[in-house]
Structure to design on (431 residues):
């Protein structure tokens, strides 16, 4: 065993340990908290005896004291740690929930399972039934819902039960407009409260007032009669009768009585007698038809023959045959189109005419009437002025005269007729 030097002299190892223990105390020798290290300390020699036992007891007491102090400090810090851990846990749990709640729209919060705030406005519904004056249900009616907040309107259509319904309607004043075919429009208003199911009282729709336009169309005979009266007022230069032309845009066919009436009016018109007298005087002055002689007797014969020519033609070609053949003896004024088309139209009307059915056809009445009038003239003309040749000659002259008269009607005579000064062919509504 080695020796150590203490107090200027050498001492044995065990003795040196005792001296060091007495000098430094147990705290330096056993400065450890680990009991295992205490057990590893080599025991002092047996000769230390009681001193070593006291040293161990002191060391163990010191260790226990230090342990109690540290445990007390830890116990004192434990509540504070628990509080901080609790606060941290609450923050972790509450923060995500609050964030999720803040991100939800107001409608989602309103529809939540929790109770609504006292000032929240709940949507309601509006429903009703439509009937007609007899109480029958009205189907297919359109109901438009509008509110005072200028929000878009909602439209529904009544079903077979006549009912309508609006859901999810915001509370407040509302307005209903009802329209249905065959009924007058109707309106209804009300106020919807929060969460209310509003039942509109049964609505009875009034039948729509019907406006009927009744056109009183007189019989064709009366219309034709009015047209004849207008034609009888037509006089060239206000003097010469011009009864056989119509300026109406929609002329009506004449019946038999009206055709004879028009022919009679021409035959007995005073101007007819005057013109006939002038023709007879001209024939006598030129000594035409010498077989009639001269003097009053000759003038009388010439006057009678001329009057027969003027009246036989209208009665046969403008009354008798048109009534039998269902043809209209009048000239229908054209007044529009090119010059060439109007000229051809006027010339063609000497051999064609309108039938009573409104269709164009050959003017058999005028052609046969001219031949008949020529044949009848053989009965009162002198012997030298008779014969078939003269008959056809007179018929051809009559047809040519009709063509020339039609040209005058189309381009001249209308302008010389005072009663037609207001007539405008481009505007048919005035006729």
């Amino acid at each position: 065993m080695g020796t150590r030097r203490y107090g200027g002299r050498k001492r044995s190892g065990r003795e040196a340990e005792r001296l060091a223990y007495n000098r430094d105390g147990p705290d330096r020798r056993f400065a450890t908290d680990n009991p295992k290290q205490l057990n590893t300390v080599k025991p002092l020699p047996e000769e230390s005896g009681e001193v070593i036992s006291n040293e161990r007891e002191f060391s163990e007491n010191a260790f226990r004291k230090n342990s109690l102090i540290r445990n007390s400090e830890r116990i004192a810090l434990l509540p504070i740690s628990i509080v901080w851990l609790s606060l941290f846990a609450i923050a972790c749990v509450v923060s995500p929930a609050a964030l999720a709640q803040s991100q939800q729209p107001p409608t989602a919060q309103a529809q939540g399972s929790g109770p609504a705030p006292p000032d929240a406005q709940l949507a309601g519904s509006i429903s009703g039934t439509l009937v007609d004056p007899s109480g029958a249900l009205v189907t297919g009616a359109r109901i438009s819902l509008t509110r005072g907040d200028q929000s878009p309107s909602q439209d529904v259509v009544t079903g077979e039960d006549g009912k309508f319904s609006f859901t999810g309607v915001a509370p407040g004043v509302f307005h209903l407009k009802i329209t249905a075919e065959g009924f007058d429009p109707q309106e209804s208003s009300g106020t919807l409260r929060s969460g209310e199911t509003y039942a509109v009282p049964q609505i009875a729709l009034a039948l729509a007032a019907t406006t009927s336009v009744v056109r009183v169309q007189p019989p064709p005979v009366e219309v034709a009669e009015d047209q004849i009266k207008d034609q009888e007022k037509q006089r060239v230069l206000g003097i010469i009768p011009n009864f056989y032309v119509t300026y109406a845009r929609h002329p009506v066919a004449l019946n038999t009585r009206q055709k004879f009436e028009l022919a009679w009016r021409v035959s007995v018109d005073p101007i007819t007698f005057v013109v006939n007298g002038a023709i007879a005087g001209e024939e006598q002055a030129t000594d035409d038809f010498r077989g009639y002689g001269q003097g009053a007797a000759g003038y009388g014969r010439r006057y009678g023959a001329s009057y027969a020519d003027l009246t036989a033609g209208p009665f046969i070609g403008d009354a008798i045959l048109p009534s039998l053949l269902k043809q209209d003896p009048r000239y229908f004024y054209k007044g529009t189109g090119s010059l060439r088309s109007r000229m051809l139209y006027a010339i063609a009307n000497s051999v064609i005419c309108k039938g009573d059915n409104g269709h164009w056809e050959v003017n058999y009445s005028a052609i046969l009437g001219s031949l008949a009038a020529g044949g009848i003239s053989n009965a009162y003309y002198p012997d030298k002025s008779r014969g078939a040749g003269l008959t056809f000659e007179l018929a051809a002259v009559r047809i040519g005269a009709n063509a020339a008269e039609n040209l005058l009607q189309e381009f001249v005579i209308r302008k010389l007729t005072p009663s037609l000064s207001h007539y405008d062919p481009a505007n048919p509504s005035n006729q």
Remarks:
- The mean pLDDT is 78.
- Residues 50-103 form the longest helix (54 residues).
